[in-house]
Write a structure and sequence with these properties.
The chain has 10 helices and 12 strands. The chain is of the alpha/beta class. It has 2 domains: 10-105 and 240-271, Leucine Dehydrogenase, chain A, domain 1 (Rossmann fold, 3-Layer(aba) Sandwich), CATH 3.40.50.10860; 109-236, NAD(P)-binding Rossmann-like Domain (Rossmann fold). The chain has a 6-stranded mixed sheet, with helices on both faces. α4 (107-116) crosses α5. The chain is globular. The two termini are 26 Å apart. The structure holds 2'-monophosphoadenosine-5'-diphosphate. 2'-monophosphoadenosine-5'-diphosphate is lined by residues 130-135, 153-155, 158, 173, 187-190, 195.
Amino acid sequence: MSFHIDANTALYGIIGKPVSHSLSPAMHNEAFRELGMNAVYLAFETDDAKGACLAMRCLGIKGYSVTIPNKEKVVCEIDSPDEPVKRIGACNTIKNQGGRLYGTNTDWLGAVKALEKQTDLKGKDAVVLGAGGSARAVVFGLLERGVEVTVANRTLEKAQRLAREFGCKAIPLPEANNVSAHVLVNTTSVGMGSLKGLCPLSKKGVQNYDVIMDIVYSPLYTELLKRAQEAGKIVITGLQMLLFQALAQFEYWTGQKAPEDSMEKALKMVTGHDTL
Ligand code: ATR
């Protein structure tokens, strides 16, 4: 499919800081190309959520992906936040329809779809490590699917607050080594950046779960996932979640089915990974 830009090209983008390493432009531009749509997706490095939403209205930008540090800040800048945005308190996707800004959150769906590709969630239980913004999306998603959720966090009060709000259980982080569940999802930053090589669970603790997912995708195989693989567990990487949340974004903006194979191929190409 040829790719051209003209006066009618629709503009989409990601707003965040930093965004120079974002993988979203590769996926969404490939989707537009595959479907022959006259649209382009760019990365906008900004922490000015209010200004970015004004620009969207003023310039007629069709859609945004929203990332750190703007996910919470945009909620009060949009006209119609949906129920997940209100419950999670964060918006990662905005669409502009005739100057009205609609917001949704596809992170929870990304997490749930990545899990559902590998396992049935119905009637199952899960432990979620962490109690920050990412944990809120994952907990919301699991509860939507009827999963019994326990939140484990370093700062117990934060886990307790989240658990009270969402109606689940809370335990201190080390306790995750002593309880068992079908699913474990790590949403803490342990395993990435300065905490690379560290693991939120002991080798023995890993044995207590059947399916282990890390929302961190750099590195793709965190220490947690390496331990899970060695223990023969079902392993789900952060790139799986990233792909599924992007598919949901594309469908929210365009109303068209996202070309999953092409977007997955683009993600593999840009990250250099053969499998996600
Ligand atoms: P995000 O929006 O990605 O969820 P966040 O809101 O900053 O990011 O949350 C980070 C999570 O990682 C928190 O649950 C944090 O635990 P605390 O609530 O105790 O701060 C967790 N975290 C960060 N560094 C950690 C560490 N060294 N050990 C354990 N948990 C850590």
